[in-house]
Amino acid sequence: MALHLETPLLESRPLSLASGRSVWLKMDALQPPGSFKIRGIGAACEHHARSGKRRFVSSSGGNAGIAVAYAGRRLSIPVSVFVPQTTTERAKSLIRQEGAEVFVHGASWQEANERALEAVDAETAFIHPFDDPLLWAGHATMIDEVVRAGITFDAVVLSVGGGGLLAGVSEGLDRNGLQNVPIIAVETEGAASLVASVKAGKLTELPAITSIATSLGARKVAERAFEITRNRPVDCVVVDDRVAVDACMRFLDDHRVLVEPACGAALAVAYAHADRLARFERVLMIACGGATATLTQLQAWQAS
Ligand SMILES: *Cc1c(COP(=O)(O)O)cnc(C)c1O
User: Fold this and answer.
1) 61-73 residue pLDDT tens
2) Ligand 1: distance of its center to the CA of 106 in Å?
């Protein structure tokens, strides 16, 4: 039994009406740890458990850390998550709620990550939040499920942080004979590391992350994500934070599910940038979720 669930796939009446075409939602917001990340991370953790690892280490104070903690609890393997001082109390408590130990170290992710790597020994598996082929193969199962359900689509909309979701969906499309289906890759302003690399024509690091969509806050995408933009149809879209937060609030009313701005960014393409979907009739949107935002936080962002 995989650690992730097969999630609902539904045709969204509100998003279809808002965008003037048929929009299907893959509801990975409903995974138990709150995001799609458990697909890839669950697969990676199971792989490492089978090969004899006795501890998992993560350096993510976000959904990846929560997913590793969840996987560890399910597999009865202890988990240590190293996070920087900037990590919210809510994120830390979501990780601890799964029984993992949280170590706070350093001002930034780089420092927490260095400390995490020091804690790795022969019996420990380090679980990267996005740059690992084991993760991509696990994320690809979301496309297998859509294809198995018999739903056809002519584009996939998803958000991009470090590009693990992009790499996984690309793999899922390829292994189902859908290599020509375009991917609409969405980032927020201030976290647009994929666009920076595409514009520069080479893998490029942002000087800083300035978006509130912290789950998209990888300063540099995985090499594989950049390669994908060169080898298959990928359209890049950048939305601003406000539009992403508004999309979260509308989605909460429309589908009664609360997601992070990282997910709102992708949904915003239907709500606010439907012009970017002009060539398509049936669009698959990955509702990737995210557990670290609260309604109070979304309202505060909307008011600011
Ligand atoms: C991690 C995450 C993303 C981005 O995924 P990457 O694999 O880093 O590109 C998007 N949305 C949510 C909610 C996430 O947790």
Assistant:
1) 899 999 999 999 9
2) 23
